Amino acid sequence: MNSKPQTILAEDAPAPAGHYSQAVRSGNSLYISGQLPTRADKAPLADTSFELQARRSIANMLAILEAAGGKPDDLCRVTAYIVGVQNWPEFNRVYGEMLGEARPARTVVPVPELHYGYLVEIDAIASLPGHG
Description:
By secondary structure, the protein is an alpha+beta fold.
C-alpha cells in the first residue's frame, strides 16, 4: 500500500515563501525544493560573497535532509544553479567540503541571474531508509 506524500519542514532552513514545501517525502524518496542562500530567520545574504552564499544554500539543503531523517550519503542527485561560470571552482570546493565522502550525481548549471540577486540555488533528490 502506498503512503500519502509527506511534507517536510526543517526549522534550521527558511520556511517556504510561496506555494510549495521545503521537501516532500514519498515512500523512500525525498524531493528537496530549490534552496536559496537565505537564513532560517530570512535575513538576506544577497550582498555576501559567493562562498558564503554557496555554504548557506548547501546548509539549507542538508538541514532539510536531516529533518527528513537523512544524511549526505542518502543524496542521489543534486542540481546547483550558479550565477557566473567563473564561480564553478569555488562551488565545487565548498560543495566537496560540506558533503564529505558523499558523491551523489550532480549537475551544475551556470545561469545569468537568480531570484533576489542571489548567486546560488540548489535542489536535491535523496533515497531515505525506512518507509514514509
